[in-house]
């Protein structure tokens, strides 16, 4: 079984039960993935241009991530794409991501060098969502303080009841 990658025009032998993303990463072909094939990020989308009859249909989990667009443009998650015959996949979308420098590998490398606090969520939330996150955080802080205070009161009550119990 062979997988041909376009626009690189590279043809590689794929093993049974090996995903297209795994093969690409093994051979140094860029396919962006944040989740490392879990699947949860849908960043590793590729388009099957030939041999769609040689791939397994998308799973329920994959369909929940890629939506009905799969039926229109045949894009699939490369981390979930298993084949049992020759196929050709178009990586044009992945090439664009690599050119823009938003690849997961490059990003993770930069994060390691920084060594500071992660800002992975920064810029991805709308202002309303950010306010909601802050409200939930402050609410949980108040709850923790309240529980800590009530925990002290319970201990005092237990001590008093023990002392009172000993006098009887």
Distance between the amino and carboxyl termini: 86 Å
Helical proportion? 40-55%
**Helix-strand category:** alpha+beta
The SSE order reads EEHEHHEEHHH
Tell me, rounded to a whole number, the average pLDDT: 76
Describe the structure.
- This protein has 168 residues and is of the alpha+beta class.
- It folds into two domains: 2-114, Ubiquitin-like (UB roll), CATH 3.10.20.30; 121-168.
- Helix content is 48%, strand content 13%.
- It has six helices and five strands.
- The chain has helices at residues 20-26, 60-66, 69-73, 92-100, 104-114, 127-167; strands spanning 2-6, 10-13, 45-50, 75-77, 87-90.
- The chain has a five-stranded mixed β-sheet with strand order 2-1-5-3-4.
- It starts with a strand and ends with a helix.
- Residues 102-115 and 121-126 have low confidence and may be disordered.
Short description, anyone?
The longest helix has 41 residues, at 127-167. The protein is built from 6 helices and 5 strands; from the N terminus they run ββαβααββααα.
